[in-house]
Write a structure and sequence with these properties.
By secondary structure, the protein is mainly alpha-helical. The chain has 8 helices and no strands.
């Protein structure tokens, strides 16, 4: 863990660079993942001397790490990219990662498939009503575009007429 690219990168930073990275990681615009913020905060507190044993114990693959990975894959509350990035940064065991990602995703599909089936049944039950609403929406959009084009053409004609010499 002490030789991970994340630790080596953070080790090479001075205090001002680390402060800027801290602002970036905490920015809600660039990062909405609380787990990533917590990971960075833990690593930042160790700067500049990182105790390899402490980090190894913190991110040691245990039952709970695998359980959390499985749960995050089953319940899509955190973006997949954030989970994958975090697992890569802490050098999560690749075989455990693949196993729990596969089965977590499999369980998620098993849960979402009946919902899709029910949504399909709901759609067929109310398809005529939904189709009518779609047609009304399409009509409103077409009328709005026509009004916009008509006003634009009228405005351009008025501007052109005002610009002509008399």
């Amino acid at each position: 863990m002490n030789n991970s690219s994340l630790i080596l990168l953070v080790k090479s930073m001075d205090k001002s660079q680390l402060k800027e990275l801290n602002s970036f990681v905490r920015s809600p615009y660039f990062n909405t993942n609380k787990a990533l913020t917590s990971l960075f905060e833990y690593i930042r507190k160790q700067h500049p001397e990182y105790a390899a044993e402490k980090l190894e114990k913190k991110f040691e693959n245990s039952f709970w790490d695998e359980f959390v990975l499985f749960g995050l894959r089953v319940f899509p509350i955190v973006p997949t990219f954030s989970i994958s990035l975090t697992c890569g940064l802490i050098r999560f065991n690749i075989y455990s990662y693949l196993f729990f990602t596969f089965f977590g995703t499999f369980v998620k599909v098993l849960m979402l498939a009946p919902l899709g089936w029910q949504a399909n049944a709901f759609y067929h039950k109310y398809a005529f009503l939904i189709s009518g609403i779609e047609k009304i929406g399409l009509f409103v959009v077409v009328v709005a575009i026509a009004v916009f084009i008509f006003r634009r053409i009228s405005r351009n004609k008025n501007i052109a007429e005002k610009g002509k010499p008399q």
